[in-house]
Design a protein that fits this description.
Layout (H helix, E strand, L loop, with lengths): L5 H28 L6 H12 L12 H13 L3 H26 L3 H9 L2 H6 L6 H16 L3 H14 L4 H14 L4 H23 L4 H11 L6 H16 L7 H4 L4 H18 L11 H11 L2 H29 L1 H10 L5 E4 L2 H8 L3 E2 L5 H8 L1 E6 L5 E8 L4 E10 L2
Parallel strand pairs: 1-2, 1-3
Antiparallel strand pairs: 3-5, 4-5
Length: 416
């Protein structure tokens, strides 16, 4: 392990501080101006519920992030920016922990830290109320503890990561397999830590939902309704998403893979298999979880100039995707915003294909269209629909731009 002298440490501390300041400026700007993303509305709605300000609650969502938002709101009052600032702080934490991980292994940890800090995926999703970045902070913390042979703490942190973002349970499984292959005599410490870290979540799930894993089962049941399945619908888009998002890093892994430990490999492989073949999701943000590990592998095996080239390609392709999606989302959300403004005075239950955002904006019960509109009307007493599709019901109002159209329907007035 490289131990730099005092002057070098001070110089690098200044540099990491400069990175963090720039990161804060970029992410704060995004957080202040960006329109709500899909899941943010659900986490904000749940935060209102935990604050006692709303009766709406989407039970399938992981609760930890919304609890944290409700706590911040006690100090700041309710605002989207203050809620997003939690994710920003988690992003700062990710950079600090990643720098410590890199410092354990490399003489020059700052360049790889800078690449990670300014990767478009981290910048963008650190400015939104999603579980990706907060969970990544605990995942990196767990790996750092693993590096330092503090296996009980590694178990605690990996289990906390999995309770913040349920699919990170796959990393815990991958880490466990790695321990069996590489550090079998330490696995009892990992498991003990995992039980301690997950105990609050398991007890909460058992007391309020009747089973230790009831919350996770509820989440998987809900997500399966909207996830694609099949080779063409799921696997091919997942592979394409990974290739485009990670791009230059993928061929750069070859030379460093042989010098990578079995536990690290096991975590990466387990997560990749899950995302591509099981999850049914091909969103680019899902690849943020393994980005820091892929950077470490590439940094181990490549000359610095080739690492910078591979990183530049990755930043360019993922940046193109992030910027394009962000601009389109900002532009395409105007009809939805107008439709929700129009609907705010209507009384009754709603259904919407953007139910998370609609539920938060309207502060009313909003259901997802997982049943037909007629079934929702008859069985759930849903009166109105805010949808981007044309349906055989009376259109109360429509809102359009050159990107998208949204319609407000009266479900009590079907069109024959």
């Amino acid at each position: 392990m490289n131990i730099p002298d005092k002057s070098t440490k001070l110089e690098k501390l200044f540099d990491i501080r400069l990175l963090l300041v720039l990161f804060l400026l970029f992410t704060s700007s995004i957080a202040y101006t960006a329109a709500l993303e899909w899941d943010e509305g659900s986490f904000l709605t749940n935060a209102e519920y935990f604050s006692g300000d709303s009766s709406n609650f989407e039970e399938s969502r992981p609760a930890a992030l919304s609890y944290a938002v409700s706590g911040i709101w006690l100090l700041t009052g309710e605002s989207t920016f203050s809620a997003r600032f939690i994710a920003i702080l988690a992003g700062v934490g990710c950079i600090v922990v990643f720098h410590r991980i890199a410092r354990e292994e490399f003489d020059e940890p700052l360049p790889i830290t800078a690449v990670f800090a300014f990767s478009p995926l981290l910048l963008y999703w650190s400015a939104h109320i999603y579980t990706d970045v907060p969970a990544l902070l605990f995942l990196l913390g767990s790996f750092y503890m693993f590096q330092r042979d503090r296996h009980f703490l590694a178990g605690i942190l990996i289990s906390v990561a999995a309770t913040v973002r349920y699919i990170f349970l796959v990393f815990a499984i991958g880490m466990g397999i790695g321990y069996i292959l590489e550090r079998r005599n330490r696995i009892s410490q990992l498991i003990s830590g995992g039980l301690v870290g997950s105990a609050p979540f398991l007890l909460y799930s058992r007391i309020y939902y009747g089973g230790f894993f009831a919350r996770i089962i509820m989440y998987l049941t809900q997500v399966s309704r909207w996830s694609d399945s099949g080779f063409m619908a799921s696997v091919i888009p997942g592979v394409k998403s990974g290739l485009f998002t990670l791009s230059g890093l993928i061929p750069a892994l070859y030379s460093g893979w042989k010098d990578t430990g079995l536990t690290e490999k096991s975590m990466i492989v387990a997560y990749t298999i899950f995302i591509v073949f099981i999850s049914g999701n091909s969103y680019p943000r899902y690849w943020l979880a393994i980005l820091p590990f892929l950077l470490l592998i590439a940094y181990r095996g490549l000359d610095r100039k080739f690492f910078y080239l591979a990183s530049a390609i990755m930043i360019t392709t993922s940046g193109f995707g992030v910027v394009t999606d962000g601009i389109n989302h900002q532009r395409c959300e105007a009809p939805l915003e107008n439709a929700l403004d129009y609907s705010s005075d209507l009384e009754g239950k709603f259904v919407s294909d953007s139910w998370g955002i609609a539920g938060y904006k309207l502060d009313k019960p909003v259901m997802s269209p997982w049943k037909s509109l007629s079934e929702l009307r008859d069985e759930e007493d849903v009166k109105y629909a805010v949808l981007s599709s044309e349906e055989p019901y009376e259109i109360m109002e429509s809102f359009s731009n050159n990107c998208r159209s949204y319609y407000v329907y009266n479900l009590e007035q079907p069109i024959a």
